[in-house]
Amino acid sequence: MPSELIVGKSNVRYDAIPKSDGSMPYGEDYIPDGALHCGVLFTPVPHGKLKSIDTRAAKRVPGVAAVLTAKDIPGKNFRFGSDTATHPGQPILVEDMIEFTGDALAVVGAESREALEAGIAAIKVEIEARGGVWTTRHGEKTAGERRVCDFEVTRGDAPAAFAAADVIIERTYETQLAEHAFIEPASGTSWLEEDGVLTIRVGTQLIEYYRAMAMMLGLPQSRVRHLGTYVGGGFGAKGVLTVEPYLALLTHITRRPAQMVLGREEGIRSTVKKHPFKMHYRTAASKDGKILAVEAEVIGDAGAYPYKTNLFLLGGMCIATGPYEVANAAIRCHGYLTNNPVTNAMRGVGSNQLCFAYENQMNLVAEALGMDPFEIRRRNFLQKGGKLVTGQKIEFETGLDSCLEGAIKALGPKRKAAPGKRIGQGFAANITGYGRPHDSAEAAVHVEMDGSAVVRVSAPDIGAGQGATLQTLAAESLGLRLDQVSTRLSDSAATPLSGITAGSRQTLMAGHAVKLAADEVRKSLVTGAASLLEAAESDIRMGGGEAWVASSPDRRVALGQAAGKAKAMGESLHCTHGYNMPGHEYENPERYMGGLGGWADYTFGVHATEVEVDIGTGEVNILKHVAAHDVGRALNPQSVEGQFEGGAVMGIGYALHEEITMTEGACRSQSFHEYLIPTSSDVGDFESIILECGEGAGPYGARGVGEPPCNNAPAAVALAVNDAIGGVVYELPITPERVWRTIQEKGNGKTGR
What we know:
The chain is of the alpha+beta class.
């Protein structure tokens, strides 16, 4: 590996202490003087027609300053990015049709929390309730009306491969509606600045929503400013609008500051969820363990509005054959509208659902052939130069063989079971994309006259250390210490725009933009240092805040001196630089939303889990979990390890506990009493294996690592449970009831689907 001074070291992140001692300000921690309390009246029914809304009594409630409905919106009543060419998007406030329980009918602003609650309660609505569509099975029958996307790709000759197969495994798998369960509620404030610019301060994954707010208010985009805060968890749900439109509308109409916190029950009913998938797989193999063909049909529940279901199901289609070279395939993915909660991005965006299906298939194929499940994976793993079902070439080393060997060794031999218990082990490999074709980002780097530097970039920090990573890249390029570099994030009026913090893309996109900008400024520092040291620019080295002559290390100057000299020589100490991700070339680009199919690159890995299952109750206990991924280059190994742990734990919760249960469009899960997320007692021993092949699309060969560890974990847990009970659980979450039922069916000689 190359020898950098800062990159590749477990440097303490600058946000570590403020987060630990509680001094880090989040969305609701800054409240302007005189701010109104802002709240929303949500629909009492999941589907129906709004016939009338009477706000007169609410406006008379003492302390109520404003009650706003759709007719008060001066611009476009539309949530940015929530529609398609054939299906309308979600309105900010309902004018006509109610499509799910998260639709908002009115916004109230009041002087106190008590007045706010009384004002919301006093609004009278007349709604004609209607029957809804609660499953995608209904959607299949009305495809012309409710289908939002339909993607299909073929490779080779799948029918011929199936005809020649020695083994064919055909099964159906289902995953659940899941909640993002971020700990910090969606919250924020808004106010008018002295020049009349409307400012929104909200924890978000995308500050570019200031444009949507300007469109809603009928204002020029330059008259709306979005300040992002540090985010206490988002996982995709804060990548769409939460409280922003209500705050913006209330402040714009009343000309007063406002504050809003979306309570847990309100948040669960109104924020986006993880797509439930129904996945039907057929896998063909030869007797020597070669996967000959895969056919898959994937159905996703988009919920009440399209949002980006098309993009995520397209992405799912591209990786539906998993981290394996499959010469013959036929994959179809489609999504349907229902009147369930809206589904959109959630850590993994389809990868974890599909991994649960294709890794179950690999084990079942191995069992049918009487082959070791590790060996069948080794014989089919994608390698550098291999191709996905779409024809996209894998440009870098995958590291899958090393990940598998590391996971096997780390998990160790199966331990002995206690009476009434069984022990099982599961291993799951995966492929997860990061970055998107045709993506772009900008960043600015400025060196001050004392040699210190400021990095400006809009990337929100959602807890994974995005700001610290960008600080590291700038410091390395400029030859500065970390304490000499400040990072300014998420201000739409002052930071170059770098897009959403999602899809494991910011290190790739903003990281490259920062490095390119810093490299340009470095040239000026080198020029200044070379002049002061009377040396050739090619002989100048920089690090630790100093510049020196490589052939005579004792000759050195502080970079502040080099900066001053460079400035005097007319060199620029500032650079704003962009980075553009090229698209892929496909034979039929119309199949891939104009070339948006797939990701810029992929991260691979293997997880291993050992579980203990109570045969009498079906209860599952995680004994140990191992996460192994090849990350290309770990820019900060400690931060990478944190992503491994956090992602895997989230995946374990998705495997065993987490599910939003619905009754005809109404959420039965309304708090963390009903929606169970894992705690430290649910995880068991944990081990991270960070592998670095040195190859990846990001700076210094880094790969995106925010999502991949979340995607293997559910499959690894499921396969471990299957190993323990000698059967197959085909649905997530793997509840004690489902485990117990599978044990009973196995005992009765029944087979799975």
